[in-house]
């Protein structure tokens, strides 16, 4: 906890203490965000660093509240970009230039298009070849080979890291009917 004595603005005090630029979050005046991705909340004279948590996709996020009690769930990289990176072309999303979803420094973020983001993922090796499916083509072929060898569906599912119904649909030809 940092105690602020009111000699200069809270953002200036924070900039001095943490060694990087810090600004108030637009529409949420009780919060200050640093260019390195750290977020602080200000209540009275106390300034506290918040600890965001990772969501299922690995992005850091938290819930912030404005002075009127309106709450908003936000991802840290989006807040950093909205606060520190101009977006004159009105790009739809924020890209992580190094592929690390937890590196939310303004130097590592850029506004971009979906195509640029997909190209970044391929370049970083973070692109999910399965997309929305649960099994890649290689995994489907391996699962079918295991099923043909007589291994029970529940064992194949456990080995492939998917649910038994996914393997059942594969075996019955309900999905991926082209796989033999």
UniProtKB/TrEMBL annotation:
Cited InterPro entries: Cro/C1-type_HTH (IPR001387), His-Me_finger_sf (IPR044925), HNH_nuc (IPR003615), Homeodomain-like_sf (IPR009057)
Any Pfam family hit: HNH_3
The HTH cro/C1-type domain, residue ranges: 144-175
Domain HNH nuclease: 75-118
Lineage: superkingdom: Bacteria
SUPFAM superfamilies given in the database record: His-Me finger endonucleases (SSF54060), Homeodomain-like (SSF46689)
Protein name according to UniProt: Helix-turn-helix domain-containing protein
């Amino acid at each position: 906890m940092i105690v602020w004595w009111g000699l200069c603005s809270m953002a200036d005090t924070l900039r001095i203490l943490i060694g990087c630029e810090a600004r108030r979050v637009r529409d949420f005046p009780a919060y200050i965000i640093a260019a390195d991705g750290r977020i602080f909340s200000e209540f009275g004279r106390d300034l506290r660093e918040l600890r965001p948590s990772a969501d299922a996709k690995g992005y850091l996020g938290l819930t912030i509240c404005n002075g009127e009690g309106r709450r908003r769930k936000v991802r840290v990289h989006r807040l950093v970009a909205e606060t520190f990176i101009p977006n004159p072309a009105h790009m739809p999303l924020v890209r992580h230039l190094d592929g690390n979803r937890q590196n939310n420094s303004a130097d590592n973020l850029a506004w971009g298009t979906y195509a640029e983001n997909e190209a970044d993922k391929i370049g970083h090796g973070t692109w999910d070849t399965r997309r929305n499916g649960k099994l890649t083509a290689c995994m489907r072929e391996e699962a079918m080979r295991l099923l043909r060898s007589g291994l029970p569906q529940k064992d194949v599912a456990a080995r492939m890291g998917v649910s038994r119904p996914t393997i059942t649909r594969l075996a019955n030809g309900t999905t991926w009917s082209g796989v033999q």
